[in-house]
Every structure is written in C-alpha cells, then in structure tokens.
Amino acid sequence: MARPQAMLIKNIMGRRLPSPTAMTKAMLMVSIMKRAMATRPSQKLPPSPAPKLVMTKMKD
To answer: How far apart (Å, rounded) are the C-alpha atoms in residues 3 and 40?
Structure first.
C-alpha cells in the first residue's frame, strides 16, 4: 500500500500532467518545503519570503 500523501500528489498531478516528470516535480516541491521548514532559523541563507508564501497558500 502506497503512502496517502504520495497517492494524493499522484492524483492531483496526474489529472493535469500525466507524466513521470510531474511526479518528480511534485516530490521535489515536497522535499524543498520540508527542508525550508526544517531550516527555519537558517544562518547560511538570507530569509526568503517564498516558503512563507507557500505555507500560507497551503493553510488556506
């Protein structure tokens, strides 16, 4: 049984772009978001408004 999150991404992406590239892009987006959340107090990179924008869109 596949993970529900992976299935959800596959279903959403599959409707618009039924291709392995779409799935890879979706997984990349998830990993980038997870990394952004994990490294919230980041000293290496300057604070970026992009992750916050993504998070607010997800919450709504």
So the answer is: 26
Per the structure, the complete domain to which residue 27 belongs is given by 4-59
Number of H helices, E strands in the chain: 3, 0
Q: Are 28 and 9 in contact (CB under 8 A)?
A: no
Distance CA 22, CA 26 (A): 6
Q: Kindly report, residue by residue over 11-50, the tens digit of the pLDDT.
A: 665 565 556 777 788 788 888 888 777 766 555 555 555 5
First to last CA, the chain: 29
Q: What is the reported pTM?
A: 0.31
pLDDT of residue 4: 66
Tokens at 23, concatenated: 């799935």
**How many domains, the chain?**
1
